[in-house]
Specification:
single chain; mainly alpha; two-stranded antiparallel sheet; 2 helices; 2 strands; about 5% strand; rod-shaped
């Protein structure tokens, strides 16, 4: 089968569009994962700052430890979500099924 210049240009244009679209999707996925990672890090920093926090009305009562433990549970959930999204994005793109993006 013979391919004309016009047909070849059209094929190249279509393939270029596909590649650029895929790159855009990967960029958006990386941004989502990055934002999720930042949120988990901030929550973890906040949890670390809560340990030893005392109730101003009752100086002997430490209220921060319970809050910190709860927040650390949330951080664990965020980290699990990050891992699940990373695997999902890899599987959807056919990259390293079961592996890591980064």
């Amino acid at each position: 089968m013979r391919i004309t210049k016009h047909h070849l240009r059209r094929i190249i244009k279509e393939e270029k569009k596909k590649v650029l679209t895929e790159a855009d999707i990967v960029t958006r996925q990386a941004k989502l994962l990055s934002d999720l990672d930042k949120a988990a890090s901030r929550a973890e920093e906040t949890a670390n700052g809560l340990y030893g926090l005392q109730d101003p009305g009752d100086p002997g009562l430490q209220v921060g430890d319970e809050l910190a433990i709860d927040l650390e549970g949330t951080v664990e959930m965020l980290n699990n979500l990050y891992t699940a999204l990373e695997l999902y994005f890899d599987d959807e793109a056919g990259r390293n099924p079961g592996g890591s993006i980064g």
